[in-house]
Every structure is written in structure tokens, then in C-alpha cells.
Amino acid sequence: MKKILSIFLVFFVLMTFVERLHAASLDTAYRTARDNYSALQSSPRKQKLRSEWDRVVLQFLQVYERDPGGPLAAEALFMAAKTVHGRYRVSRVADDAWEAVMLFERVSRDIPASSLGDDALVLAGDLLETTLGAPEEAYLRYQQAATRYPHGDMTPRARQRLNALVRYAPPPSSSVAVAARVEPAPAVLNESSDPPADMVATRLSGIRFWSNPGYTRVVLDLTATSAYTASFLNADPVENLPQRLYLDIGPARLDPALAAPTVVDDGLLRRIRAGVPEAGKVRVVLDLVSIGHYKIFPLNDPYRLVIDISGDKIPEIKTLEPSLQAAAPPKGDEVAKVLEQLPASLPPPALPAPPILTGLRRIVVDAGHGGKDPGAVGPSGLKEKDVTLALAKTLAKSLREVLGCEVVLTRDRDVFLPLEERTAIANKVGADLFISLHANAAPNRQAYGIETYYLNFSKNDKAAAVAARENGTSLKEVTDLEQILFDLMANSKINESSRLAAEIQKALVDRLGERFEDVRDLGVRQGPFYVLLGATMPSVLVEAAFISHPREEQRLVSRSYREHTADAIVEAVRNYARAHKLIVSR
Ligand SMILES: [Zn+2]
């Protein structure tokens, strides 16, 4: 007993020592970062080099990441934001300003108790207002500063800016007067006011939706690009009208088949009505039950508007079946077909979930492309859509067997599935992770290697080019998308996604590198991928190899390469889950 006690004591003393050492080294790391920041401030020569800024940003972020709950966390994150802001002042690249805004916001969001929260939010507001020309966004940050930190030293400034920007206040607070003025027309199709087809070519041709209790995605299909405006109306108890979100699209006309309201009734959204308030304009009204947030973004080819509506908090889905019964998607829909098969394709886990993995119950594996979209095609004719499907099936099997979690495939055969439906499935089934599988391609047939992406602004032209290819759009459209990306990323799990991407990339390179010649590590990258937009769980896109490279094309054909790829991803998911659990329990 005495011996055990003394061993315990030694262990305890050792642990205390290790902890102190850790704290001391963290302290040193923070001081080094600060010194480098000061050195950068006083050296115009260094300031011209982006790498100098990046180095300091990274040093601050590392201090934060090593102990996100620790005494230095808020200061380190705040300084990282300030450094990125400094980088913007030199580069004048809007992405840098956006990145600074995001980091400032995180100070308040991740460490709400910090006294730097109001400073950070006001700085984010100032950047949005003056530099980025986004007064509505700025208003929200000032508002957060004023409400979250009523006694903060920067709160007077927040209040002053709120007064100055009052006309940019979000609509829900502007209430009944507005509602009376812009009451949507009843959704009656007025054939006589519909202009001749040759005058207005764009037609609203379809309304689709996917829902669960906390999240609904609506997609409006149009036959061509069209301008739109969105407005929000408060409930009107006098007229017995619910909260409404409506979009005016035009010039456009309405497909007569869409004149009848679409009933949704999923707890968030009652129904969707489409009508023609005046010639050449289509109005789509979403009758809401309750709303937390909404996001609208256009996708191209074919043109469509995606509307994501979420409640205040997303309820946890305990089992898969009830959520699927709660809201069956429209018949004839590809998602419907996939989802209808879910219970059959989800055999009870062979093994009980190991305790270490209690955090991961359900993973969605997405086989890129499919059906009429072959994806990239290799020199000998191998199609990306076939590679991704084979790889997805192998990965699903392995995840179920090794980790004992449920796996949902977005497609289990050669069918076409629009990109927005893939994340809709993941959100709908309450997935804990979303993994989209692809094979890379480049005009240069010599290019090869492995890379893993997560959703963010692209950091370089190559990443933007890969995003453009996977999105099926032009590079210009990717740039346009980046303009609205900031807004869309508010709920996305950027940190977790980047961590998952890092685990996957490392496992792939390590494992495949041991077994195959010349495995090239192209690293973890970020880019604006449509397929990852709106995912509410950590989500990544894996480019497993270059199908355009003759040797890698041959590897993608081989079962052994695919199996090792799948095994590496399983290992990465396990490592991610372990690390994540540690972070959560800290
Ligand atoms: Zn692809």
C-alpha cells in the first residue's frame, strides 16, 4: 500500500511538474509571438513580406490552440486577429480583412467571458463598416458588443455606431409598419398578367426542400440567372399571418405547375407559396413557424437559389429513423430514393461503439459526382464518378466495421445528385462528420499527389481552380462566391474541419507512402466548395489522387489502393475523435 502511495505521489509530483513546464513553455511561446509582433511593427522591410505576417499569426494561434481555455487564450486570439488586420493594411486584399473579422469574432464567441470581447466585436464592426462596406453586418457586431458586454469599455462606441447605423438594423425589429407596406400578394397565379414567354425567358421551374426539426433547406430552380431580393416579415396576429420570408425574383415567370402551395409543416416551415404579384416578377413566400437564422445563396449551372433556414438551436437527433419519418422528401426525388433505402442500408453496428467514440454516431460519406456528371476523366478513360463510388463503399464498410458507427452514403449507385443535396442529406440525418470523396485532375498531366480540403476562402489560385472544377463553375464564379462566403460560414465548423482535414491528410500520406512509390503530400488546403456549403458538422473534401496522372489513374483502379485509402481515413477519423474528445472534456 505504502509503495502504491509513493508511486502515486511521484506520479503526482511529476504531473504537476509537467503541467508547470507546459505553462512555462506556453508563456514563453506567447512572449516570443509578442516580441515578433513588435519587431514586425517596427520593420517596414519585414512588413512587405506576407510570410512574416503569417508566421506571427501562426505563433499566436498556436498559443491559443494549445490551451483554448487557458489564461492566455483570449489575448493570443485577439493578437492573431490584430496581426491579420495589420497584414490587411499592407496587402489591401479583402480576404485579409474578412479573416481579421472572423478572428475578432471568435474572441467573443470562443471565450465569451474575456474582457477583450467587446473590443474584438467593435473592431470587427469597424472593419465591416468602413473597410468592407457591409453596414448590416457591422450593425450585428456592434449589437452583440452592446448586449453581451453592457459594461465594456468599448460599449459606448458600439452604442454610438448603432445609432449611426440604425437604418441597417435587421428587419425583425422593424415590425408591423413594414409588414403592412410590403404584404406579399396572395399566391394566385395570374395568367393574364404573365408576360409573353419570349419577353421573359427565365422561369421558376421547381421548388425542392429537405427538412428536419432544426433545419430546412429549400431550393428554387430557375431556367436562367435572375436577380432576386429577400425580405423578412414579422408575424401579424391581427391578420393571422405567420412570420414570412419572401423572395422577389425577376424578370421571371412562374411555371403553372407551381401555383399550388407546397406544404412542408416540419416545425420550422409551414409551406412555400409562389405567385406573380406583377407582370414579370415571381414572388416566393415561405410561411415560417419560427426562425433563428436564414442564409440565401445562388448556385449555377443550372441556376438555383438555395435558402437555408435554421431554428435557434438544432435538436440532437438520437436515432435515424424518426427524423426520416418526420419529413419524407417529395417523391421522385433522387434524395428521396437514397433516403428511402437508408434503414436497409444501415445494418445495426456489428460491434457496440467503442466508448472512446461516443462522440461519433453517424458519418455521411459522399461519393463525388455521378450520373450525367462523370467528374474528371483519366487518360485511359476512367471516370471519377466510378472511382468515388467504389471508394465510398469501401470506406463505409470499414467505418462501420472498425468504428461501429452508422454510415450514410449520399449515393450508393450511379445517379446524379446536385451538390446542395449532399450537405442537405448530411444535415438532415444529423451527421457528426461529412466526408466527400474525389479524384483530382489538372491540365498538366504530370501533376500528382494527395490533398484534403475544408471550406474557407481559397488561399491561392490553385485551390480556387480545384474549387471551380469541383463546383462545375468558372473561376470568376468562385471569386463571386467568396464574396458571400463569409456570411455562409457563420455556422460552419471551420476549426474542427481543418483538424479533421489535417488528420486525414496525414494518415493518407503516411499509410499510402509506406506501400506505394512516390506518394506526394500536397497538404491541407482550403477553398469555397459548394458541396461543403451549409454543412453544420465538420466536413472535408478528399482528393485521393490525380486521375489525370497515368500512374495514379492505375492506382485508383486497384482495389488495394482504395482499401488502404479507406483504412487511412478510418484511422484519421479515430484520431480526430480521440483528440476531439480530449478537447471537449478539458
Ligand atoms: Zn470531383
Outline the structure in words.
By secondary structure, the protein is α/β, with parallel strands linked by helices. The chain folds into 3 domains: 20-168, Tetratricopeptide repeat domain (Serine Threonine Protein Phosphatase 5, Tetratricopeptide repeat), CATH 1.25.40.10; 203-310, Immunoglobulin-like; 354-579, 3-Layer(aba) Sandwich (Aminopeptidase), CATH 3.40.630.40. 47% of the residues lie in helices and 18% in strands. It contains 19 helices and 16 strands. It has helices at residues 2-41, 44-47, 50-66, 73-91, 94-110, 117-131, 135-148, 155-164, 175-181, 320-326, 334-340, 342-345, 384-403, 419-428, 461-471, 475-488, 494-515, 550-557, 559-585; strands at residues 203-212, 215-222, 227-233, 243-250, 253-254, 262-263, 269-278, 281-288, 293-299, 304-310, 362-367, 406-409, 433-440, 450-455, 521-527, 539-546. The chain has a 6-stranded mixed β-sheet with strand order 12-11-13-16-14-15, with helices on both faces. α5 packs antiparallel against α6 (117-131) and α17 (494-515) packs antiparallel against α19. The protein is globular, with a radius of gyration of 26 Å. The model is unreliable at 173-198 and 313-356 (pLDDT under 50). The structure holds zinc ion. Zinc ion (ZN) binds at residues 368-369, 375, 384, 438, 470. Zinc ion binds at residues 368-369, 375, 384, 438, 470.
